[in-house]
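Regression test attached.
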Amino acid sequence: MTDLDQLKTDALTRIEDAPDAAALEALRIEFLGKQGSISGLMKTLGKMSPEDRQVQGPLLNGLRTAAADAIAARKEVLEDAELEARLATEGLDLTLPAPAMPSGSVHPVSQVMDELAEIFADLGFSVATGPEIEDDWHNFTALNMAETHPARAMHDTFYFPDHDSDGHRMLLRTHTSPVQIRSMVDVVAKNSGGAPIRIIAPGRVYRSDSDATHTPMFHQVEGLVIDRDIHLGHLKWTLETFLKAFFERDDIALRLRPSYFPFTEPSVEVDVGWQDVKGRRVLGGDGDAPGHGWMELLGSGMVNRRVLEFAGLDADEWQGFAFGVGVDRLAMLKYGMDDLRAFFDGDGRWLDHYGFSPFDQPTLSAGVGAKA
Ligand code: DAH
């Protein structure tokens, strides 16, 4: 037996007999560490003649690999044994209560959008969506805001450098109203007769604006009804029914004020009555009574016949009403938050306070804001 064979037999035997992880690590250092015996032998290769190196090189490499493999194998055996020993002694008490799982919460904006969808579904509305990156025609022109229309200036639009096929810059939609156009165009394309339509379109909208009551991104919900013989009475009843269900009280007073939007004619601004309750404005009551007042809530009106025509509908046959309201504003009013910016800060503490359990799914029968 050569010295090398002897060394190998000794090393492998000792590795195999290593009683625990610490002993095994000591052996690894003894043989393969920087100052280790096998590492020392490897270093002698450099000083050998080429002929000797040709013979000794493969032998020494083999020795080093064999030692390393043996250490890895022994390590696995020791680890398995340790696990076995732990499993044999450790008990598992299946009667202990499970640790509480942290659960996420639903953002008030999502909750309010669910509530809106729920209420309007009961009134026969479906939910429509449209792109947030919109073209000029859907966002402005087809809503009766021609290129030079002053109402465009009120929107502080974010534009993209890219142009659409008409040569206009693409933009981030400034309101959900373009979904009105998309829904009408869709219905016209699907059946040449056109309407009827009953949709709400909740979603994100964007304007270059930022303070305590404005964020560059916010949420609106658009409503659109198109049918034969639709009139302002339908609009008022629908809004009244919606607001009573949403705010969960019957004494919601509405005031319709003449206003102007390019896409509706006539246009009305809808105010809701509030009353002072311990220094806070709470919706309800009679806006005209002492200590009561009116706050502006949403814009609406009868769809302008020019808008119907842009969308390809026969304005002598079809009429409709539309409305648009800020979802964040509805959430603030219903759940009593006062700074809009907190909605989008992503602060977990705020969400813990104002968020909703995923199980608080709104239903009209249980009450839309009911806690499950
Ligand atoms: N699009 C309007 C805005 O963002 C809101 C609005 C007003 C929508 C009247 C409507 C409407 O559908 O009829 O300021």
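Expected vs. actual: identical. Residues 120 and 242 are 7 Å apart (CA to CA).
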